[in-house]
Specification:
Number of helices: 9
Shape: elongated
Distance between the termini: 18 Å
Oligomer: single chain
């Protein structure tokens, strides 16, 4: 029986994310958490500063496009637009943070998987990280190009009076939850050279799990203090989900 089987498997993606909190600080894994954690501390600290100084101004500007006879909608739209601003800013800053920390997130996923499966991790050191940089950043570009046209379509929707401002924030949150699932699940998939289209297909087969994982990542990303720890915790949670749900069919070692 492997170490991963000694712990009861979560029944949802959200459960896997929460499991990531304990996995991120287990002996032998903590040292791989330090760099992703420091990157996230810096970027999310910047995010909090930007939101505190600009959020009210942004929302008031968006509400100015609503016709005067729909002013009563402002009370409903203000919290929805606040969520929209939090989600889009959170995704932007987390994307930047993930680009910077991508090689170290992959290393964290690799060593955690080895611990969960009681296998010896590849011992490539810094040379291995440098060798893999082209592949890693190519993968980040694939995720970005998958994201951009869909995000642009949702941004255009947001400019449609009333309908866009009502549905837009909800659709944006759902889309961002899906993207967060892709972003963090990708590290263990990519470590095994599973192609980006194949990974998306696998995640769609358990879309509810992927969405609940990504949704909780988004909630924590928008929550002060907790958002500082999201990146390594999400990598660990996604790796545990990979081991339990996908590794048996897709692993290359």
């Amino acid at each position: 029986m492997t170490p991963s089987q000694l712990v009861q498997q979560p029944t949802s993606g959200a459960g896997y994310f929460l499991r990531g909190f304990s996995l991120a600080f287990t002996p032998g894994i903590r040292r791989f958490v330090i760099i992703p954690l420091m990157v996230n501390l810096l970027l999310m600290g910047t995010l909090i500063s930007v939101l505190l100084s600009q959020l009210s101004t942004w929302i008031d500007g968006w509400l100015s496009y609503i016709p005067s006879w729909l002013d009563w909608l402002s009370y409903l739209l203000w919290p929805l637009l606040a969520i929209f601003a939090l989600v889009i800013c959170s995704y932007f800053f987390s994307t930047v943070a993930n680009w910077i920390a991508a090689p170290f997130n992959g290393l964290l996923a690799e060593h955690l998987e080895a611990k969960l499966t009681d296998k010896r991790p590849p011992d490539d050191g810094i040379a291995g990280i440098v060798k893999d940089l082209p592949r890693i950043f190519k993968r980040e570009w694939q995720k970005l190009w998958y994201y951009l046209p869909k995000a642009l379509g949702l941004l255009i929707l947001m400019w449609i009076p009333a309908i866009g401002q009502t549905l837009g924030p909800v659709l944006w949150f759902l889309f961002s939850a899906w993207m967060m699932g892709i972003q963090y699940c990708d590290y263990p998939f990519d470590n095994h050279r599973v192609s980006f289209p194949s990974m998306k297909a696998s995640l769609r087969e358990q879309k509810g799990m992927t969405m609940s994982f990504g949704a909780l990542v988004m909630v924590f990303t928008m929550t002060p203090v907790l958002n500082l720890f999201v990146m390594p915790v999400a990598v660990c949670g996604a790796t545990a989900m990979w081991v339990d749900k996908y590794r048996g069919e897709l692993a290359r070692y």
